[in-house]
């Protein structure tokens, strides 16, 4: 089969590799019907995630058809159409028993495209298949479901829920890429008073308006002054960091009000300065997190009932074999306007 293989920072290729086989009774083999690229994949290619070994197949988001299941798999069968979650869950460890699947101690967590071969391939082995896949209703499209593999639960859980967005809040989202836009979309479920989007790229600020931000500001145009004006000088109730660079995190810390919440979603490859000399007296709550995907069933129900239009994130479509071209487009969003790219089996 073909798969997108990571070789070293900056080096990847669409290679012939062995088709995966069952390794455990809890495994499933899934034929990949649709897959996407995540900003985290770009971080891997930059060398920001050193745990990824050369030779690893990348990708942790997919929709596909079950080809084979292990003897211990009871919830899905050959021929079922499933969402493959970005997080795998053993379902038995201390964290899984309390919904903290991202911290799974039993061999799960974020493993696909990280510690085991991932989804940017024609077939993928999914460990703990009963607790790491979701059956899809006939009316849910592959493309819509694919957006629930990572970006929507990540933004909802790590940004909106960790940030405790409440009615009337002023919410600032720093970074209007796919994760930031998903935070803007799901923050609206809690009726905030204002959503302010901050980004460097004008096309992404325009996208933020379409996704529900009522105020947009370039990161070069003094967002601190804009937020101060909106909040009467207090600062934002909730600030969501959705970039993953030191400058954006430090900006978020300046934008949040005393007693406010800073929810970091971005994947950081370098240290950021935490100015405790300023923050200690302001009662700031800072949260970080890897998504647990415990919200995926809820989001799927909202997708089914039409409360979420997940396909709005998709800007480019490619055949699966054109993954190199898709990476090129996705990695140059300021030029291409790319939000999410979908690669589909022909």
From TrEMBL:
It comes from the Bacteria. Gene3D superfamilies: Medium-chain alcohol dehydrogenases, catalytic domain (3.90.180.10), NAD(P)-binding Rossmann-like Domain (3.40.50.720). Its cofactor is Zn(2+). GO terms for molecular function: oxidoreductase activity; zinc ion binding. The keyword Zinc applies. Residues 7-343 form the Enoyl reductase (ER) domain. The keyword Metal-binding applies. Belongs to the zinc-containing alcohol dehydrogenase family. PANTHER family: NADP-DEPENDENT ISOPROPANOL DEHYDROGENASE, ZINC-TYPE ALCOHOL DEHYDROGENASE-LIKE. This is Zinc-dependent alcohol dehydrogenase family protein. It comes from Umezawaea endophytica.
């Amino acid at each position: 089969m073909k798969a997108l293989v990571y070789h070293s920072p900056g080096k990847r290729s669409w290679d012939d590799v062995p088709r995966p086989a069952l390794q455990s009774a809890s495994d499933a083999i899934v034929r990949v019907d649709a897959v996407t690229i995540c900003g985290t994949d770009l971080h891997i290619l930059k060398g920001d995630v050193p745990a990824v070994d050369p030779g690893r197949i990348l990708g942790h988001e997919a929709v596909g058809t079950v080809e084979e299941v292990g003897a211990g798999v009871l919830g899905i069968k050959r021929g079922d159409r499933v969402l493959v979650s970005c997080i795998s869950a053993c379902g038995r460890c201390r964290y899984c028993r309390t919904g903290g699947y991202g911290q799974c101690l039993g061999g799960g967590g974020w493993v696909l495209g990280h510690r085991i071969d991932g989804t940017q391939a024609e077939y993928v082995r999914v460990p703990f298949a009963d607790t790491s896949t979701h059956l899809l209703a006939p009316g849910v499209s592959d493309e819509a479901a694919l957006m629930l593999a990572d970006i929507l639960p990540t933004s909802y859980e790590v940004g909106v829920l960790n940030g405790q967005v409440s009615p009337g809040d002023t919410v600032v989202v720093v970074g209007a890429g796919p994760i930031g836009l998903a935070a803007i979309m799901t923050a609206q479920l809690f009726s905030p008073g204002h959503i302010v989007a901050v980004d460097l790229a004008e096309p992404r600020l325009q996208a933020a308006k379409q996704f529900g931000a009522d105020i947009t500001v370039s990161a070069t145009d003094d967002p601190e002054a804009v937020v101060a004006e909106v909040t009467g000088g207090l600062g934002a109730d909730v600030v969501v960091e959705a970039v993953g660079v030191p400058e954006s995190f430090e900006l978020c810390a300046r934008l949040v009000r005393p007693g406010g919440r800073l929810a970091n979603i971005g994947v950081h490859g370098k240290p950021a300065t935490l100015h405790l000399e300023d923050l200690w007296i302001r009662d700031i709550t800072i949260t970080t997190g890897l998504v647990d995907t415990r919200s995926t069933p809820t989001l799927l129900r909202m997708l089914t009932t039409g409360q979420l239009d997940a396909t709005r994130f998709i800007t480019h479509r490619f055949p699966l074999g054109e993954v190199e071209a898709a990476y090129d487009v996705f990695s140059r969003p300021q030029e291409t306007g790319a939000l999410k790219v979908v690669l589909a089996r022909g």
